[in-house]
Design a protein that fits this description.
Length: about 220
């Protein structure tokens, strides 16, 4: 019975790592890579929904409200960024992440929710004061984007204008947005340090880190 309880408790985390490691293997096999790319938006949607289901069971409906606000805010931020080129730099999305609205795949808003929530979950484990915790969240989110960018570009998620280099303002905007969006998590009575969101953050970062290391 004890072994069953342990499996039930930790098995949900194992599923996350298994899915993303299978994704790594699929991206490394050229014959399978087109299928992996075609499945990308659906995989992100399913895995994010899976994690959020567990997270909201622990945190309650307030987390859903926060997530909805972050989704809407980041989607509009991205739309403004694509349209003007003034926020993140000049860039455009490819076809890999699915159909776009206002030039932005809706899955991007959900990805912002998961990254900020995961980074805030880690920061909240070590820092209790809002300002240091929000700053740490921003640092973690920028570190994640730093790992993700080269792989995402290579896979055709998006492309940068000019000579194709990633502009520094992209990372600056990630820092500002992550700081502002995570701030409420440290100010209102909402649980945000659930292990499941932290494991998702690590698993997604591991996915991009491995692909970056092998120079896909």
């Amino acid at each position: 019975m004890e072994k069953m309880n342990i499996l039930a408790r930790y098995g949900k985390y194992g599923v996350i790592y298994i899915i993303f490691l299978v994704g790594v293997a699929g991206h490394l096999i050229e014959a399978v890579r087109p299928l992996m790319l075609a499945m990308t938006p659906y995989t992100l949607l399913v895995m994010s929904s899976y994690v959020l289901w567990f997270a909201m069971r622990e945190a309650g409906p307030v987390l859903m409200v926060w997530g909805a606000v972050v989704f809407a805010a980041t989607f509009l931020l991205e739309a403004a960024g694509v349209y003007t080129g003034l926020l993140f730099g000049t860039y455009e999305y490819g076809d890999v992440l699915g159909s776009t609205i206002l030039g932005v795949p809706p899955i991007i808003g959900l990805n912002w929710v998961m990254v900020v929530l995961g980074a805030a979950g880690i920061a909240g484990r070590f820092l209790k004061r809002p300002l240091p915790a929000a700053l740490a969240t921003a640092v973690l989110a920028v570190a994640f984007d730093f790992i993700m960018e080269p792989v995402a570009i290579q896979l055709g998620y998006w492309s940068w204008g000019g000579n194709g280099d990633i502009p520094l303002q992209n990372y600056g905007m990630w820092a500002v947005a992550s700081f502002v969006l995570s701030w409420p998590l440290f100010r209102i009575p909402i649980r945000h340090t659930m292990p499941v969101v932290i494991h998702y953050f690590f698993a997604l970062a591991l996915f991009f880190a491995i692909l970056l290391a092998v120079k896909l």
